[in-house]
């Protein structure tokens, strides 16, 4: 004998709505927990979850009156919810169609003057060839750059500027070391260890 299949979530929702639509009455949760198992085969444990899902989807209304919460739903409620969903989907479709038309118009506009032709194909091929040749020439020039007097002079000047900057920082470090010796009575070794200063630090020859 096969085991009886339980109700799916959609079947529970449909049957729960039938309770409201057939009776057109108002219910508290505890009343639904008694009615649903007997009349619709919905387990008492799942009644609250099913009702809440219908409320979340605006298929069932709920209102707190005093200390009690009442639930209700009329046949027109489901119809109006479906109608509202249809309107939302139609609006989404209209918006998508507008965006598609705008994109299509943009593509058409950008394509003007770019239509396939023998002349355009030849020009693109020539441009591609010239671009390749330019890259090869730049690559070849790079080989001789090290022998370029202007480039060599530029490198020399940059090296000199770097030496000046290094020596300025070296001078600042010596001044700070002298200050710490006099103020905190620290020796050279302690200062160098604490501040990661190389023992053989010295000025760069210029």
UniProtKB/TrEMBL annotation:
Its main location: nucleus. It comes from the Eukaryota. Keywords: Coiled coil, Nucleus. Signal peptide: none annotated. GO terms for cellular component: nucleus. GO terms for molecular function: double-stranded DNA binding. The keyword Protein transport does not apply. Residues 16-75 form the Mnd1 HTH domain. It is found in: Nucleus. Residues 152-204 form the Leucine zipper with capping helix domain. GO terms for biological process: reciprocal meiotic recombination. Residues 79-172 form a coiled coil. Belongs to the MND1 family. Required for proper homologous chromosome pairing and efficient cross-over and intragenic recombination during meiosis. This is Meiotic nuclear division protein 1 homolog. It comes from Danaus chrysippus (African queen).
